[in-house]
Amino acid sequence: MSDAPQIRNLFIRRPVFSAVISIVIVLLGLFSLTRLAVESYPPLTPPEIQVQAVYPGATAQDVADAVAAPIEQQLSGMQGLLYFKSSNSSDGVMNLSVYFDISRDPDLAAVDVQNQVALAQPQLPQEVVRNGITVRKRQTAFLVVLALSSDDPRYDTEYLNNYAKIYIDDELKRLPGVGDASTFGQLDFSMLLSLDPDRMAQLGLTVSDVAAAVQEQNATNPAGRIGREPAPPGTQLTIPVITSGRLKEASDFERIIVRGRPDGSLVHLSDIGDAHLGARNYDLAGRFDGAPTALTPVFLRPGANALQVKQEVVARMGELAKNFPPGVHWTIAFDTTPYVTESIKEVVKTLFEALLLVTLVVFIFLQSWRATLIPVVAVPVSVIGAFFGMQVLGFSVNLLTLFGLVLAIGIVVDDAIVVIENVERIMEQEGVPPAVAADKAMHQVSRALIAIVLVLCSVFIPVAFLGGITGLMYKQFAITIAVSVVLSGIVALTLTPALCAVLLRPVPEGAPVVVESGVLARAFNRFFGGFNRGFRSVTERYLGAAGRVIDRPRTFFAAFAVAVALLLVLVRAVPSGFIPSEDKGYFGMLVELPDNASRQRTEAVVKQVESFLKAQPAVNHVVALVGLNFIQNANQTNAAIMFVMLKPWEKRSAAKDQLPAVLGAVNGYLFQLQQTRGFAFNLPEIIGLGTTAGLELNLQDRGVNDVTRFAGLTGEFAADANALPTLRGVYPTIRVNTPQLFVQVDREKVKALGISLSELFQTMQASLSTLYINDFNRYGKTYRVQAEAQARFRQTPEDIGRLYVRGPNQQMVPVSALTRTEFRAGPSVITRFNGFTSALVVGAPAPGKSSGEMLAAVERLAQDKYAARGIGYAFSGQSYQERASGGQGGLVFALGLVMVFLVLAAQYESWSIPFAVLLGVPFGTLGALLGVWLRGMANDVYVQIGLIVVVGLAAKNAILIVEFANELRAQGRSIREAALEAGRERLRPILMTSFAFILGVTPLLTSSGAGAASRHSIGTGVFFGMLVATLVGVFFIPLFFASIRSLSERGLVGRRAGAVVPPTVALPAEGD
Question: CB–CB of 32/387 below 8 Å?
């Protein structure tokens, strides 16, 4: 029989089996990677249901009172409702947005809103109900904006707009992954009946006569069938009977008979006006790079692959373009995918840089290419295998999951290093073969590896149960790391010992062999010989310092208390934040002219701004939506929203071409424009999470009860907020001095003459606005038939008096005889938030200030100065989510500590030993917050995510010492000797793994380009956290173990149930 030691470990005896396990993990990961969606963030926007209603001719106040208020009264109490807000504009349109918790199913939320709107319909004006109330899920994941243009003057924007709606929109909506595609504006075809009020009065006709005639003669008139059953026996044929149905051409509408005269002659529509194919509404216009354009926004369906969907959109547009009329072209005017592509590419680049740096650290410590190869093989297995877990869990490839993988590289390499270092130590000290050393090493460290995996998972997995947007962000990041950690544990228990047995060679201590011979070998040996001598010296000094720390517990526990106190100070000193503001390669602008400025005036100013922007070296393209106030979600002829695409990041490396500098230059230019106000702003980091990346505060009228006084207080609030050092660019959106022409109807005179009030108001509405009569069909679509007065009859206030209504004796009465007019000031848009009249206030943090400081400052201002004056407040958008997430970071941190404690208590069957591990965590937290504070950053979501990692890794370092010290204590060593010996034996793997992680995250600190702010935020916390946790923790962990184990064995804290405790060796008193 052979005297060779028996190999007990299955995976060392069967290396092929071990390799197959890892190969299967990699194959599953690679297969899953091809099926995962790619996006910048997972779906994080709360479901938004949009309700739109139209009250033609109504003022903003009329819409707010008669339409918005009845609907809003029905909304409160719905499941998962966060808040709702409405915008009511002077064009008669109400846009109501209802927001739900992110856990709410959007389809069910839409059904709930539809039901509540149905309950309010009996209270709404009939004209509103007749025009239709739309309830739909709003798609918020903005992908691209397509521009359709033509160099042929025959194809104007009206033609292009309708061409896109007929031939492009539906084609794009049918693509998998596209959530919505709707061409901007309301230039849909409409049959416009332009009436001559003077001629109508001469003929004794009213708008009601015209509407009745159109409804009668432009209708579908089914007649039935000849020979239908039941029929007489022998009937051979069944023939459908057709009649003239809806009219199609303008000439058909002009031949409509409005009235028959007593002499037998007829009055046709052409006698009192004309009909022509026009547009439903001309108040909105799109522009791209200075030219009128039809713009089609394309939205991404939740969970779809942004890059793949864009490719499909481009491919489909290429096919459709083959059938475009000559001279019609398309292009991508606005694109969010470059930021997705570049930011993910930068993180992937960081991923490889981290792998290289980790490999370098491992190579320096292990000093053997064979030993280095083992973790280099193990790391990709854990990282690639994580993609399989991501697919099973429904995750996507996004910034959060990729950040998790970057940090996982430094984490998962630890398990392999612990095994390799232990195997090499046994080979050097005992002179046994690699297979035997690997078998013995696994017997020693398997329990520690399992403990490390359990502790790290106990830190990360509970995060999955948190709710809200921040909970989802934590979940995507933490669970990705947890999956990698579990796979790392599997690899460390299977593949790593097998590779150690196969690849490692016995090497005498202090004599590293990197290459076999030659000059390179001598150079490496000299370097590593010096490194080893230096490390042995560091180890001896460490033992001396650690011994002194253990011997002076009072002094160093006092130092620990000071560190905890400093940590508490930093918790309050470091400002809070949400998501760092990024240079996404684009930004938004709002341009406003004086109240009631026409669209033509607004478009002229937009042209000036476009010229300025195109002259900027950093600007690539400019998209303008004229007639839309994006901030208030209202159509206003005096407003325009602009989106500016910047050149690629690599082409604008100069400071003046970075987003903050560009925003400053643009805002400076807007400030100088005469009779124009506006501002440029960064869009939210998560598209759809509000309108701007800064402040969104809704001031509410909770006791003022006067819109003019409320507007004055809002302006005063904005001025006070601008004076605060934490804010800049505070901008109130409410305007109540819009000139309005008030028509005072003499109701007594109207009734005395027997005239219908509804007839009077309908006449004004049809003449000054449009009257929707019914529909006609064209190009396979259904369009509106609308009546309006000819343009020359609606230019001045006097034109109102030239309108006529009919009395009971068929006499035509001029409206001027029944009314008087006067100019008044009033709001052009009335916004409401949670049922109260409101004013949206937007702004941004001052340079060097965080969003948390900004929100806290405006809250104090609102509570201290304005609450008593009848002003309430509520946040919306990104500001709401930041406030709602307050305390989540602390909850995550506390939950992680509790779970680590419970897992360790179960692992060691002791309530006291876990404290020796957890007491090292404050050092990591202190380092993380200190680094964030020194770099002038905020304690945002990414920093808090990093703190979770620091907790896990700091606990892991402590476990390596505590686990070994417990074993030595069980062997009969004294507490002090066990603590110091464990520190000495575990110092090398601790420093190796910690510095591997620290260098692995260094690229996050130094990165630039797309998404750099997020990388800096998460990298700063974990870098400084682990640096302090390692350099300070290795001295304090032996002290914590010795003190707690001593107390435990004295029975003061709690002892392991049923354990046999070796004779206690008391700690020396301080100074002994």
Answer: yes
Phi, psi of 452 (to 5 degrees): -65, -45
DSSP character at residue 38:
B
Residue 565 scores a pLDDT above 90? yes
Half-sphere exposure of 440 (CA within 13 A, CB side): 17
Contact 30, 387 (CB under 8 A): yes
- CA dist 821 and 658 (Å) reads 53
Domains of the chain by residue range: 10-35+341-578+886-1049, 46-139, 190-222+247-279+739-826, 586-738+829-875
Residue 423: closest CA among 371, 379, 382 = 371
CA distance 999 to 151: 56
Question: Parallel, antiparallel, or unpaired for β 189-195 and 781-789?
Answer: parallel
Q: Decide: residue 654, CB within 10 A, 0-12 exposed, 13-18 middle, 19+ buried.
A: exposed
Q: What is the DSSP string of 1015-1027?
A: HHHHHHHHHHHHH
C-alpha to C-alpha distance for 414 and 402, rounded to whole angstroms: 19
Could you tell me if 63 and 55 are in contact, meaning their C-beta atoms sit under 8 angstroms apart? yes
Mean pLDDT in the chain? Answer: 83
- CB atoms under 10 Å from CB of 548, counted, come to 13
> Which CATH class for the 46-139 domain?
alpha beta
The domain 586-738+829-875 having CATH identifier 3.30.70.1430: the answer here is: yes
Residue 261 burial (10 A CB sphere; 0-12, 13-18, 19+): exposed
Among the CATH numbers 3.30.70.20, 3.30.40.10, 3.40.50.300, 1.20.1640.10, which is that of 10-35+341-578+886-1049? 1.20.1640.10
- Angstrom distance (rounded) from CA 551 to CA 544: 11
Q: How confident is the model at residue 645 (pLDDT cuts 50, 70, 90)?
A: very high
Rounded distance between C-alpha atoms, residue 3 and residue 856, angstroms? 75
Which range has the worst mean pLDDT, 18-32, 417-431, 545-559, 711-725?
A: 417-431
- Which CATH topology does 190-222+247-279+739-826 take? 3.30.2090
Q: Can you read off the two tokens belonging to residue 969?
A: 């204590």
Query: Which run of H or of E encompasses 836?
Result: strand 836-845
Asked if 665 and 614 touch (Cβ cutoff 8 Å), the reply is no
Angle between helices 369-392 and 399-430 (to 10 degrees): 150
Residue length of the chain:
1072
Share of the chain above pLDDT 70, in %: 95
Report the amino acid identity of residue 922.
P
Q: What is the 8-class DSSP label of residue 244?
A: -
Contacts of 524 (CB under 8 A, 6+ apart): 367, 512, 514, 515
**pLDDT tens-digit readout, 391-428:** 888 888 888 888 888 778 777 777 787 788 788 778 87
- The one-letter code for the residue type at 870 is G
Q: At what angle do helices 941-970 and 468-493 cross, to 10 degrees?
A: 40
The CA angle 151-153-154, to the nearest 5 degrees, is 120
Half-sphere exposure of 139 (CA within 13 A, CB side): 19
CA 32 – CA 25 distance, rounded (Å) = 11
Rounded Cα distance, 313 and 171, in Å = 9
Q: Which residues of 832-868 are buried (b: 16+ CB within 10 A; e: fewer)?
A: bbbbbbbbbbbbbbbeebbbbbbbbbbeebbeeebee
Task: Find the distance separating the first CA and the last CA of the chain, reported in whole Å.
Answer: 57
**Fold match flag (46-139 vs 190-222+247-279+739-826):** no
Q: Where are the alpha helices (DSSP H) in 1007-1056?
A: 1012-1049
CB 343 within 8 A of CB 1013: no
In this structure, what is the dihedral angle of CA atoms 908, 910, 911, 915, given to the nearest 10 degrees?
-50
CB-CB contact of 658 with 609 (8 Å): no
